[in-house]
Amino acid sequence: MTREKITAEILDVIAQYSEVPGDELLAAESLEELVDSMARIEIIFELEDRYDVEITDEEALGIRTVDDIIDCVERRLKGAA
Prior knowledge:
This protein is an all-alpha fold. 68% of the residues lie in helices and 0% in strands. It starts with a helix and ends with a helix.
């Protein structure tokens, strides 16, 4: 799966929890500006289910931006391959 496809899918998921449409989300945008802490947890759970990966608590705590989530999921997918 390409980074572009992963990015598009993750932006769609985040947009479901944010008031900002997916096509307007910036990869470097702070998640704290987009969603509350409960929504961040729900996004992580949804991505774990969607991609069949596990994001550790330590990784989740380090996720600050949209780009951080994309990087994390991409690493996990490469590790599962």
